[in-house]
Design a protein that fits this description.
25% strand, 5 helices, 127 residues, 5-stranded antiparallel β-sheet, Hepatocyte Growth Factor, alpha+beta
């Protein structure tokens, strides 16, 4: 299926899901590098872009760009990494649900035996 066809199917089928956590989407931000595919279509929204990323096992993050910046229609760039976001008006970026879930799981684990002394040193140090 072509990129436009997949966008249309996702938009029409209502599969444009909300990302796992609200903080996974940053309005007015983008990411540089690691772009392996860019799709453009009039019906493309940030949610549709997120759904395209979630449906692709290679995608770790995405960037949606509004039509005024592309010169024609909105664009969705799929990235094979999750580089640090930077301020970029007219763009929206987010993480794939798989990456967001991995980050959330890592954040909820207890500290390791190696990390505990470092955390204690931080708490005991000057503030």
């Amino acid at each position: 299926m072509t990129g436009r066809g997949l966008v249309a199917v996702l938009v029409l089928a209502g599969l444009a899901v909300t990302p796992a956590v609200a903080d996974d989407v940053l309005h007015g931000h983008a990411r540089r590098g690691a772009v392996y595919q860019t799709l453009a279509a009039d019906s493309l929204t940030p949610r549709a872009c997120a759904a395209l990323c979630d449906a692709d096992g290679t995608c770790q993050s995405w960037v949606w760009t509004r039509a005024e910046l592309t010169g024609s229609e909105p664009a969705c760039s799929l990235l094979s990494a999750a580089p640090t976001p930077y301020p970029a008006p007219g763009r929206v970026t987010g993480l794939s649900q798989a990456i967001a879930s991995r980050i959330d799981a890592a954040a909820e684990r207890p500290p390791s035996d190696r990390e505990i002394p470092a955390l204690r040193a931080t708490l005991d140090g000057p503030h």
